[in-house]
Amino acid sequence: MDLKGRNFLKIKDFTPEEITYLIDLAADLKAKKKAGEPVDMFRGKNIALIFEKTSTRTRCAFEVAGYDLGMGVTYLDPSGSQIGKKESIADTAKVLGRMFDGIEYRGFGQEIVEELAEHAGVPVWNGLTNESHPTQILADFLTIREHFGRLKDIRFTYMGDARYNMGNSLMVGCAKMGMHFTACTSEKYFPDPQLVRYCEELASQTGGSVRLTEDPQEGTKNADVIYTDVWVSMGEPDEVWAERIRELLPYQVNKKIMENAGPQCVFMHCLPAFHDLNTVIGAEIGKKFGISEMEVTDEVFLSPQSIVFDEAENRMHTIKAVMAATL
Q: What contacts 288, CB < 8 A, 6 or more positions away?
């Protein structure tokens, strides 16, 4: 499998065989790291990490993966570059492409990372956009395969707001890998109908399926994986928080939901999660809206069925695989 020179912008761009290859490579690199075997075959190469949105897991995963591979890593925070402000995206891409061997972008519209890739001349990796989060999907799929020994025929339920990057990317990924994807949420929060049709056609070819339901009991019955994400992005007004909490509370992942799925079911979350009041934001939201948990209860988050920290670690191993394969 030769992916050298490829960009990693969205899961839609990769075949099931290519996704499997990246997961296999990540598993191999993870085993080598656990065994203390060096994989620093990219000494002399350098990568740039552009973060217009801050992050804990994505930044750390890219930095540690880059250092493990022997590369130099330059981090550009939201104030650390002129991208889109004093300098166009195309010009920024052309400059960085002459200095670096690869570029990561985490920020806003998918069109930004696509334009970077068009002009950079080196591999560009999507660390998150509003529409897509492909590195997270690889980490999720590695984690699921580690737990169940397979991806095909896994019954996967996504709860909450399924309209944006996580819902979109997981639905596409599940369809490509022959999994059975369910978006369980209010109809208002269903994924884009055009993307749903694309995934239904894809799933018909891989043996998977795509389902949308508003019924939490029906949507989670016998699920192997229940997945959720925060309901509101930081910075959105109080009215949005109040609306989402009111409309999505029936889709909170709690003990009743996990019991409905069955003992085989695991809980996943891309993090950070609002499962208690032990953060500044959590305390503020608790005070404003009278809740101590949002998309998942603390009981489920800390339960033996929760594999969220395995999932978080696997961000590093799968990102390392993406960089190694494309460089």
A: 238, 241
**In whole angstroms, what is the distance from residue 263 CA to residue 259 CA?**
7
Point out which residues pair with 209 in neighbouring strands. Answer: 180
Q: Three-state DSSP class for 106?
A: strand
Q: Angle 109-56-274 (CA atoms, 0-180°, nearest 5)?
A: 90
Asked if 268 contacts 225 with a C-beta cutoff of 8 angstroms, the reply is yes
Nearest to 298 by CA among 314, 279, 277: 277
* Pairing, β 72-76 against β 46-51: parallel
Active-site annotation, residues: 106, 133, 136, 229, 270, 315
CA distance linking residue 160 with residue 183, whole number of Å: 8
To 10 degrees, the CA torsion angle through 255, 179, 13, 58?
Answer: 30
pTM of the model: 0.96
7-41 residue pLDDT tens: 999 999 999 999 999 999 999 999 999 999 999 99
- Omega prior to 272 cis, within 30 of 0: yes
CA distances from 310 to 3, 128, 253, 259 (A): 26, 20, 19, 22
